[in-house]
Amino acid sequence: LTACDLYRAKCYKVDAVPNTSDQYFAYIAYDIDLFEEGSIANLTASIIGNVFGFKAVKALRLEDMRLPVAYLKTFQGPATGTVVERERMDKFGRPFLGATVKPKLGLSGKNYGRVVYEGLKGGLDFLKDDENINSQPFMRYSERYLYSMEGVNRAQAAAGEIKGHYLNVTAATMEAMYERADFAQQLGSVICMIDLV
User: Fold this and answer.
1) For the chain, which end, N or C, has fewer CB atoms within 10 Å of the first or last residue's CB respectively?
2) How far apart are CA 118 and CA 151, in angstroms?
3) pLDDT tens-digit series, residues 9-19
4) What Gene Ontology terms for biological process does this UniProt record contain (predicted)?
């Protein structure tokens, strides 16, 4: 992340990947001062964006990340936890079941909404937009939101239980993201998503 001696990364262990001749597990430590407290954007940009963009490395995969408890405590986290979500959805004694809408690109808004409806009616608790879906010419965000929420409402009525869909509000500007989130809320959506990377 930096050439400054004080903050250089430290590779403290290297293990060969079993049954390979040219692959290794590298254990790398970074000084916690390199990361802004409570910022997922900074953490992911530093570890995933910066390190994975390093041209000298031909192939790289992040296997695990361990963070100090003191740093983790700087994140506010969600306003509610799993218990509250279970109460909201009235679903106990089993895992929540969710999926991402596929195909992720190319559907019309109406067909996208149909996939949302069919997935939720078929037993999923929630679906989510793929990170690549924003507001492309073949399906603008407003059309996707309308048909997706229609699918959620129809599935809830058919199944007699609470269902949901994470609408992707990611946009080029913060103003556009707020506008999309407001529109989603007007349609009755209680949850949305933002793609950070």
Assistant:
1) C
2) 8
3) 898 999 999 99
4) reductive pentose-phosphate cycle
